[in-house]
Design brief:
3 domains; 25 strands; Wheat Germ Agglutinin (Isolectin 2), domain 1; Alpha-Beta Plaits; diaminopimelate biosynthesis (chains A, B, C); five-stranded parallel sheet; eight-stranded mixed sheet
């Protein structure tokens, strides 16, 4: 093979690979360091990605595809996903092709090349570490720890929209492990087997959590305007948009859930819940999720919402809505709307028919400018027109 | 003394010890590595047990009893508990007796012997470490850090039922300490005395908590189906049955409290509270405890209960009960039951007399199939018959 | 200069410094170890103080003032604050003056001198570390990371009362950083730049939080009777009085907020909220803060208050008040007070006029002995006279 000397050579080389039978471009691909089980060295417990490719960088993919092939690994592009072990030979092959680019590499450019160069360096020093390449060809139910992690990264990094990926069966694929201080997974069985020695020698590891999912902050570098006051509160797979603050009280953001704009979050954003820009989720406020709580409707909360302290929201809300502190608006909650308020609400919700006085929560899904209250003298839950615009405290951002 | 060569020799030897005056078998016993105060080397701050014996393994106990005696330590079996320091001489004596079994030792067998062998190894290398044996002869108010810890382990490991042990005065016995990253206790006074050096040299330790109790996950290896997303949420002395998940939002499980079957826990399980199999404790739900909240009745929640998000439960509940999101059912809450619902409830609660329309919470203690709601138009709190069976999401387990 | 041999010499020397033009005594001053940015070595990310001086120890200040001057650093006493870098020359100058006292130094005496001696020792070994002296001359909006930290320490240590310091713009001054296991700040940008190497080598740091504020327990040694079960729950700048317990469920104490006496805290103490002695803040109870929630009134909760589980308090409360579990008392909440209860309440609130039946929450601010309830049959929120005295469980303290 002729040495690749420039971009043009590379393009020709890549075109040749792309024309091969069985070549197919993945939706997403990335290279990971994987943590293996102490009990079964074939078993992956966790994958760490630094550079994630989503519908991009197919030249690098093609070269990797070729390098694997050269080393005897045929990437099966017919399945929905493929995980290939990366050893020195594969990485060397890749670097051989990209050699002409090495001098161009700096901070933010050629991230995939940087990744391969770094792995090469690590493998030179210590062949013990485990690396792999993960390819997702179709968005079907994930089959490997590596592909679940890749999907969780895609969500957390905002490469794809929340709720847009197939995560069916992810709970079954991920092993339940103890996460130690270094955010490394340890199997509970291994801890049991080694308990006597670890305890008696004073070396029993501090376990921060036992879960199938790792923590968001163990994998994702948030943008500068994001704050997470307690790493335990956000699972990998959550997405926190710029300007999002997660306070440490009763808050929580599950995987496949999060914010799409700046938000102050002191409550629970359950799995599949999406919170819009400028919203304030008050202390202890609960937004019910699909995993337990609602009848299966994923809840979105619109822009500039205010969910009061200890309120509960069980229906999707449009923009500019308020749920007062301490009240629960569920699918079956009966809500009174006076004709005066109905008239005002009509303006903000042209399509909706306010043709009665009592509505069920489910009927009011996704409407704008609703202010839910409980009359403190009659106990009546009402919805009225919200004329205030909720504003997050700028000082806090 | 003749060398013990086999099980038969051992039995004879043990029988001889058992026939001694002053010999008595403890309810529970175990060997611990103890962490001592930096300020007073006599003072135990924390005990780590790997193998716990509850009404079992009395041959090992007898040998230990004898070994201590041989080394001049007379175990006082008349008190409710006894803590003996274990040095190399004691451990060597024990191992002398069990020498014939050493080759048989593997993974799960002869755990006490493994424990002694491990201590022997550690003491050979570094005599600095501290080990003790703790014996509990009677379940009275604990007098030592070592016996409090042993009782907390018995509860957490499910060797005894929750609420079945005497823990009176445990708060007074346990010192309040700072727990560092390695889950080791540091006295606050020591931190104050060394603050200048620690701060100026950049070596001030990260403190994860300041408490009398350690964290559950620093001492207990949970079963594979248990998840605890934030180690701060569960104190040692809590019991988490198989299939229990503790989410990181507003949840919490105190010592001497927990679950007896699979459960999704996003709320607070206060001290002395027991939650039954198949129950769902919603986000921010509070179950009041005996330490503060109720008038002293320990609350049990039955099987297949659903405590809605931000609900409060101040009375014990039978099976198949629901408390709707956001409402509080306390001892004094007046609850309306219509005659139609009373009839249905009668089926599920044969013994109870539904002879009126308004009940106080306290009167409805432990009944089955109650569904507590607040009418959102009248503010009236009602109880009706719950016909739904609460089912935990199987995907999550 | 003549060597200072005794207290008398020192006093004379100090008097001479004090008489200088431009000399001015700061309200507060202290010496810090500072953590600098990896990206810009001039930028301070965090300051660690061990000894804090508030309107005290001006002899030590004067000597430091002189030492800085001798080393060419003129302390600008006209601005509201000044931060001076401390190098070996400065520290040596200070120690030269205090040499006669060195033999007197022990545990609790001459803390400032101990601090300088410790820095001297550290700088001798490794000149790399960064130290500074921070002087606050006027309580204006803080301009530096060092002065914000000094103010947060003053609040947390109880040297000044909560809400008594000017913290305007503190959010803007503090950088948002990732806090690692050693409680050291890391810039998010640095993490991004080094992500590939850190992830691929398995050395990506465990991040405990991303926030502008550090955790209380990373800087403050609490008194022996204080418990904080989860370090993430309390920001530096909070004050926890003796006998305060912060449980790990839904609780939280923000900066410039806290307790003034013993308290059981299982709920949220938002920024600027002060809770009085003997109070019990129930599980998930929310006290609204000035940063988001109230119309700007800082809320105080008086002595012996009981805020029930999942209650919400949006108005200041006097002594002996109870807010029942699950209810929200906000500024606009309409509250019914019967004439019978009004008569009893009048005794406890001589100044107040109970001249009607329905009050808004805001009208009842700061009154004593109010018991807020919701009638569970009519939904009516009422206030009545609280005759019970709330008592914290002594066993827990």
């Amino acid at each position: 093979m002729k040495k690749i000397k420039n971009k043009e050579d590379l393009n020709k080389f890549v075109d040749k690979i792309k024309s091969q039978d069985g070549y197919k471009e993945p939706i997403a691909w990335a290279v990971a360091r994987v943590e293996k089980s102490f009990l079964d060295e074939e078993k992956t417990l966790c994958a760490n990605y630094a550079v994630i490719n989503y519908k991009e960088n197919y030249a690098s993919f093609a070269v990797l595809f070729w390098a694997l092939q050269e080393c005897g690994i045929k990437v099966d592009t017919k399945g929905s996903e493929f995980v290939a072990k990366l050893d020195r030979d594969v990485v060397d092959k890749v670097l051989e092709i990209f050699d002409f680019l090495v001098d161009e590499v700096d901070g933010n450019s050629h991230k995939n090349l940087q990744n391969f160069m770094t792995i090469d360096e690590i493998l030179s020093e210590d062949g013990e570490d485990n690396f792999c390449a993960t390819f997702i060809f179709e968005d079907k139910a994930p089959k490997s720890v590596e592909s679940v992690y890749l999907k969780l990264y895609l969500l957390s990094l905002g490469k794809v929209a929340l709720r847009s990926l197939n995560l069916d069966g992810a709970f079954g694929v991920l092993p339940n492990v103890a996460w130690d201080l270094q955010s490394k997974p340890i199997e509970l069985e291994w801890l049991k087997e080694n308990e006597i020695w670890l305890k008696m020698s004073g070396a029993y590891p501090t376990i921060l959590s036992v879960d199938k999912f790792p923590r968001f902050l163990s994998h994702i570098v948030p943008n500068d305007s994001v704050r997470v006051l307690d790493s335990s509160k956000v699972r990998l797979g959550a997405h926190l948009a710029d300007g999002t603050t997660i306070m440490p009280g009763a808050s929580y953001v599950n995987f496949n859930a999060g914010t799409t704009g700046k938000a102050m979050v002191e409550g629970r954003i359950s799995s599949s819940v999406i919170v819009g820009d400028g919203s304030d989720i008050g202390g202890g406020a609960s937004i019910l999720g699909v995993l337990s709580g609602t009848s299966g409707n994923a809840i979105s909360v619109g822009k500039r919402a205010l969910l009061g302290a200890n309120s509960v929201t069980g229906i999707p809300l449009g923009d500019d809505c308020i749920v007062d502190a301490g009240i629960a608006i569920l699918e079956g909650t009966k809500i009174y709307i006076s004709s005066v308020e109905a008239k005002k609400l009509q303006e903000a919700n042209k399509e909706f028919k306010f043709d009665k006085e009592i509505f069920k929560g489910l009927e009011l899904c996704n409407l704008n400018s609703l202010h839910f209250r409980q009359d403190s003298q009659s106990g009546k839950i009402t919805a009225s027109y919200n004329k205030k615009t909720v504003k997050l405290n700028e000082n806090l951002h």
